[in-house]
Specification:
The protein has two domains: 30 residues; 76 residues, Immunoglobulin-like. It contains three helices and seven strands, in the order H-H-E-E-E-E-E-E-E-H. The chain is elongated and about 80 Å long. By secondary structure, it is α+β, with helices and mostly antiparallel strands. The mean pLDDT is 84. The chain has a four-stranded antiparallel beta sheet with strand order 3-2-5-6, with no helix packed on it.
Length: 134
């Protein structure tokens, strides 16, 4: 009976030791238990389309939030693990624009390029990166 108790205690100590090592020496392990920080994101619009800037808004799809651009800048407060992309303002329902989401940062540049689909461009960029000479 004492041997069983001693072995259970030693197994518990080993598990606690492993958890402690993971907590202190693997920062990503300890931070995954914390909620993401909220950061202020300044999104700058680089409008290469022939339409006015008022057509576009910055959108955080998972949060369901949008922000208008004022003088080419939209400001949002988002979780640091959120994504942001360009979208069309609801005041312009006849326009269509498809953008690729990107990670948020304190400052991001959202490029509106109507000459080519952003999704197709990202696919070609990824292929060029993968197959370029090293």
């Amino acid at each position: 009976m004492i041997k069983i108790f001693a072995s259970l205690v030693s197994i518990g100590l080993i598990i606690a030791g492993i958890f402690t090592l993971l907590w202190f020496f693997m920062p990503s392990f300890s931070t995954q238990f914390e909620p993401p920080k909220i950061i202020q994101v300044k999104a700058y619009l680089d409008n290469r389309c022939s339409v006015t800037n008022d057509v576009f808004v910055a959108e955080a799809p998972k949060q369901g939030r949008t922000a208008k651009f004022y003088d080419g800048v939209a400001i949002m407060r988002l979780p640091e693990d959120a994504k942001i992309q360009l979208a069309i303002s609801k005041t312009f329902p006849d326009f269509k624009y498809d953008d690729v989401s990107q990670d948020v940062a304190a400052e991001v540049v959202l490029v509106a390029d109507c000459s080519a689909s952003p999704r197709i461009k990202s696919i070609f960029d990824a292929m060029n990166e993968q197959f370029k000479d090293k």
